[in-house]
Every structure is written in structure tokens, then in C-alpha cells.
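Allow me, if you will, to draw on your knowledge of protein folds for a short while. The matter concerns a single protein, recorded as an amino acid sequence and a row of C-alpha cells. Could you please explain, in whatever detail you think fit, how the C-alpha cells follow from the sequence? I remain grateful for any guidance, and I place the record below:

…
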Amino acid sequence: MIGFLRGRLVSKRPPQLVLDVGGVGYEVEAPMSTFYDLPSPGEEITLHTHLVVREDAHTLFGFGTQRERALFRELIKVSGVGPRLAVGILSGVTVDEFHRCIESQDVAALTRVPGIGRKTAERLSIEMRDRLKLLTGVAPGSAAGQAAAGGDSPKAEAFSALVALGYKPAEVTRLLHNVESSVTSTEELIRHALRSAAGA
């Protein structure tokens, strides 16, 4: 997995950009939320990346912030939402706006994003609710949430790890909620949650 790329921006033609990293040109697809903050070609940039591997293609997606990439990774776990639609969502709304839509169950606002119909919007509002609570470890919009906006919190990392292990988001939310507040590292959060799940 390629975690990030740092190099010289060669060209940018939405949704694709080319990044020169040590003489190798990487073609990267990015949402408009990332494009808006890109400098002129020739400048150095850093992108947080996610590689999607399929039989017919390897596609590298790039994001200006870890929050964008984290949301992208949660979106593509939702049934019916592929990488292209996830990029479209991030192009149509900011991370904070998406948080607000899910928290307020504003299905109508979600359907205004190109490519999202009523059924997909309803599915997003249901499946993303628990996931978003753990992306920053606190409710979006709160003071603590703003402080954690710069990156993934230990609780968010623990949440992603437990979901990757096969636990459902709602179950992960319950398990992490039961962990004592004195436990702060990602590894310890996962260990305590697994013990709780096993009834230890």
C-alpha cells in the first residue's frame, strides 16, 4: 500500500493529476476538494493516497488531508458506493458538510450531490452514522473534534482496525465505548475491545 506521495506537481486536469516523485510520474485521481488547494504546476505537494486494485486496473487516489482519505475509505465500504462515487461525494461536499448531513439525517442534501439517488442517500445516512462518530473519536463540530481534525485519532484507527477484522460498525462503537477513558493508545484500545468482545 502506498501511504503518501511527496513530489513536484507536473499537471492537473480534474479529476487527474500527475506527480513527479524522484523521476517517476504518478497518475493520481483526486476529488475537487483536493484540487481547490493545489498550487501551480512545478510546486512540491504531499498527497495522502489510497490504492484501489482491480483485475483490469490499479488506480491511485490522492487527498490533500488525512480526513478526506479517511472519509473516502469509509465511503467505499458502503454497499453501492465505489471509489468513483466516493470521489464524487468529496467533490460535492466538504468533510464537515458530509458530517453534518449524516448527523442531521439530511437525505435531501445528499441527493443534491451528483450521482447520489434517494436510495443511496438513505443507505449512506444509515451506514455512515456510526462510522463518522469514530473517524475523529468525537462528534463532528465539537471543540475536541476541531482539535482532532488534523489527523486520525487512536480511537479512529482502532475503529478502522476492528472493522477490518470483520466487526460491524455498530458493534465496534459499543466495544470502544466500553473501554475506560484512561486507555489512549490505538493498540491498547484494540486489545481492550477484543477482550470485551471475547467476554474476558
Remarks:
- Residues 118-135 form the longest helix (18 residues).
- The chain is about 45% helix and 20% strand.
- Residues 137-151 have pLDDT under 50 and may be disordered.
- The longest strand covers residues 44-54.
